[in-house]
Amino acid sequence: MSGGDMAKPLLGHQSMEGDPSIAPAAGRTIGVLGSGDFARSLAIRLVCSGFKVVVGSRNPKRKAGLFPSAAEVTFQAEAVKKTDVIFVAVFREHYSTLCDLADVLAGKILVDVSNNTEINHHKESNAEYLASLFPACTVVKGFNVVSAWTLQSGARDGNKQVLICSNNQEAKRIVAEIAQVMGFTPVDMGCMSSACEIENIPLRLLPAWKIPIFLALGLFLCFFTYNLVRQVIHPYIREQKNKFYKIPVEVVNTTLPCVAYVMLSLVYLPGVLAACSQLYYGTKYRRFPDWLDQWLQHRKQIGLLSFFCAALHAVYSLCLPMRRSHRYQLIETAVKQAVEKKMNIWVEEEVWRMEIYLSVGIIALGLLSLLAITSLPSIANSLNWREFSFIQSTLGFIALVISTLHTLTYGWSRAFDENQYKFYLPPTYTLTLLVPCTVILAKVVFSLPCIQQRLLRIRRGWEKGRYVKFVLPSATGEYSSGETSSNV
Ligand code: NAP
User: Fold this and answer.
1) CATH code of the domain occupying 209-460
2) Which residues of the chain are in CATH 3.40.50.720 domains?
3) Which interval of the chain is the signal sequence (predicted)?
């Protein structure tokens, strides 16, 4: 094996040095059944973490050259005899071919590292299936969430968590120790019934992002169609002008800020709805409806997508003057002015509008970048609760207000110009203002002292007309119950 990354000491290994609970794991002999990609990476990592490794293969002679020289590669039965902890690095379909080893495997710990190709592929998890084939063994599910690449890439990169479950606490502890020595963070997922859930994890594609992505795509499609009708279809039908060249850049660039702005307001709208619900019911102990719960949980992803669209809008806007169509239009305007002998084209109001529009846009993008950076787990973990809520809540709301100013300076007086109502459709920016302005207005109302005080009391546990159950002994010595209002 080449030295490379794996020759360097592992972070986890270093951090566990001096921890007496971990000492017995290092130096232990670990068995690996199988000689494929995962077995190879696992063996390399185990060797580098100080374990003795014995690999069990159907064809040890052919496979030995693929493993580090410190690892012993032998026949399956031989390997199993030399160790008590064996990683089963073969696919579920081949588990039954290991049944000949049942006698030598009896009483040993088998670590099931397997994954499936589909979510809930089989009725029982792979680990439960392995346990049913080898009832005399103790099966631990683990390591399936780390890839062969993560195992190879050493301490610097890759997922650090190893999810572990088993019905046997001692076996689970031993495997957790091995994971720690290898530089991973073991996470106890409970008993074997969690195996199915653990096996499904590597198959899920961005589960937390699904709803926000569909939301962003839905908004993009709606605004894109709306802008297309106003900017391209309307001039084509009404004035027979071909403006289809606008589709790739201009229409996209007027759509992106609409999505970014509305998405940003959708980060703060569920908080407003939650506050309304708390004020209405006079308690914080009533569960929100499921859709609101889901919405609250997806705010981070919605905010990040808002930032993504805003960043794209900035890049598109910077590129606008590079387009050939823009140059032609500039020259055309200059020629027209020369023909009309117009010398002064300076419109003071337009100049100021543009300066303010750009400036607030840049500030809004800067604030959104700050929100995006602080939502990264490594940064968020370094902030205390007050700092995090100041940035995400206060600065986030300021970003929404500044984005509203950006939108208003863009629209200026266009909402009052009847030429702007193409096919009687109002300018797009007036539509985008609806949700953000509702959120801003609601926040202003909530900051009124009478409402703010009530909300604060509710969030500290006060409840409207709360009744407390009490139990009194009766004259006969029996207990009778009743209710009284805590407010009295
Ligand atoms: P692989 O490269 O195809 O290796 C599978 C190994 O299984 C073979 O090299 C073979 O070794 C052994 N085997 C034992 N009995 C077998 C049989 N009857 N037919 C064929 N092969 C047999 O697969 P892998 O990528 O290492 O994956 C192994 C296990 O790790 C799978 O359960 C997989 O889900 C899991 N896993 C893999 C990764 C990854 O990144 N690759 C990540 C997480 C989990 P011998 O010929 O030496 O016996």
Assistant:
1) 1.20.120
2) 29-203
3) none
